[in-house]
Amino acid sequence: MESNVQQDPFLVHRQHAAELFLIRHGDAIPEADEIIPSGVYDNLPLSKIGRQQAQALAARLKSSHFDAAYSSPLRRCQETGAPLLAELGLQAIIVEQLKEIRLDDLVPIPEIPEGADLAMLTQALHERQDKIVRIAGSSGNWDAFAHSESSKAFRQRVVQALDEIASRHLGQRVLVFAHGGVINAYVAEVLGLEKEFFFPCANTSLTLVRASGDTRVLYIMNDIAHLSIPSAQNS
Questions:
Q1: Do the beta carbons of residue 78 and residue 179 sit within 8 Å?
Q2: Cβ atoms of 185 and 195 closer than 8 Å
Q3: What does the CA dihedral 95, 100, 105, 107 come to, rounded to 10 degrees?
């Protein structure tokens, strides 16, 4: 007798699979008027823009039903999920394996005295982000960064973590707050791509994958319709 997945290879019927709503965190690069305590630059909170994006995401999804929520332990992911989870009455389960890929220091972060103008810090963080995207986007492979987590190891931990989440929630809808690299790696696995980084995953974008065991189907990628809401763009 054929299994449910064999009868439904594209997982059209949601009861045969977990529906993973993969959401990238909001913007976390501070502007010069946002003071950040020193020493937290690898675990930044959301910026003002990021907080607005998180509120827009919550407004979009608050009327939807979700059975569970998971998050990377990093602040930018947890803060992105907070407004929506408050509306839904859910609490995110923290999964260490959903952290972003570990990269070496590409652009030195200047030491800024507490309370000083953050223009230099903002510029350095933007330069670092631009360099990461430029190198990863052109190569598609995290091994282009010396002394960093390997592409193979990164994809393995991401796929294992998300497949394990899916296995717990067959027939259910699940929120996962994670990072651009994490979402790239999992979708690359879903599509059978060798590249680890192949699309510019936008802040608070929604990517939907249905998964059941080794069968995974991409339904939506990089959806940012909620950011077109005027209130989400106001400063």
A1: no
A2: no
A3: -130
Task: Write down the residue that tokens 């890929």 correspond to.
Answer: 101
Task: Report d(CA 164, CA 95) in Å as an integer.
Answer: 11
Which residue in 140, 190, 144, 142 sits closest to 22, CA to CA? 190
- Dig out the tokens for 50 from the structure: 């990021």
pLDDT in tens, 192-231: 999 999 999 999 999 999 999 999 999 999 999 999 854 4
* 87-91-95 Cα angle (round to 5): 135
Q: Where are the beta strands (DSSP E) in the chain?
A: 18-24, 68-71, 93-94, 173-178, 206-212, 215-223
Per DSSP, the three-state class of 215 is strand
Distant-in-sequence, close-in-space partners of 105: CB < 8 Å, separation ≥ 6: none
What tens digit of pLDDT does each residue of 65-112 get? 999 999 999 999 999 999 999 999 999 999 999 999 998 766 667 676
Give me 2's structure tokens. Answer: 């054929």
Q: Burial code of 92-109, b = ≥16 C-beta within 10 A, e = fewer?
A: beebebbbbbebeeeeeb
pTM: 0.90
Residue closest to 24 by CA, chosen among 98, 97, 87, 91: 98
Q: How do strand 206-212 and strand 18-24 relate by DSSP bridges? A: antiparallel
